[in-house]
Amino acid sequence: MSLFKRLFGGNAAPAVIPSEDYNGYTITPEPIREGGKFRLAARIEKEIDGEVKLHHLIRADLLESEDVACKESAAKARVVIDQQGDSIFR
């Protein structure tokens, strides 16, 4: 197996992860592959005064499955939005 296939997983296509709207925010799960696991991460966006604000959520949690990491990333983003609201963009 070539070096690039070992590093980047061969011919596996990256998963298409749908965004979701939540209380005026857009949440896009973006789990980060680390070895054979996936770090919980998501992008949170909201338009405020005509400008799109962006927050990258990255947690220490490592999960076995990309699918589970996507679901948990979105769930954690919803909790952060509920707890912090627009202050996440400061």
Structure summary:
This protein is of the alpha+beta class and 90 residues long. It has helices at 3-8, 66-84, and strands at 20-22, 25-29, 32-34, 37-48, 51-63. It has one domain (17-89): Double Stranded RNA Binding Domain (2-Layer Sandwich).
What fraction strand? 35-45%
Radius of gyration: 15 Å
State the major sheet: 5 strands, antiparallel
CATH class: Alpha Beta
Helix content: 25-40%
Give the second-level CATH assignment, the architecture: 2-Layer Sandwich
| C-alpha end-to-end distance | 46 Å
Output the CATH topology. Answer: Double Stranded RNA Binding Domain
Mean pLDDT: 88
Low-confidence stretches: none
Shape: elongated
List the secondary-structure elements in sequence, H or E: HEEEEEH
Characterization of the model:
- It is a single chain.
- It is built from 2 helices and 5 strands; from the N terminus they run H-E-E-E-E-E-H.
- It is α+β, with helices and mostly antiparallel strands and 90 residues long.
- The chain has a single domain (17-89), classed as 2-Layer Sandwich (Double Stranded RNA Binding Domain).
- It is elongated and about 40 Å long.
- It starts with a helix and ends in a 6-residue tail after the last helix.
List the helices and strands and how they pair.
Layout: H1 3-8, E1 20-22, E2 25-29, E3 32-34, E4 37-48, E5 51-63, H2 66-84
Antiparallel strand pairs: 1-2, 2-4, 3-4, 4-5
